[in-house]
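Re: weekly structure request thread

Next one in the queue (52 aa):
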Amino acid sequence: MHQKTLDNDLVNNTTAAKDGKIIYLNPATWYLSGYGLESVPMMLTEVSDALK
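Done, posted below.
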């Protein structure tokens, strides 16, 4: 759903979009997680995997 939200002229004209450098993260981990600091390692893993 978040990919569809960002599919617009404003985003598509950015350098990141043109270079295919937009990374989509799991919103449940980032915004809905009730684990507090325990979710930080999950977030770091997600970002690390996305940058590989």
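The chain has a mean pLDDT of 86. The longest helix spans residues 40-51.
Next request, please.
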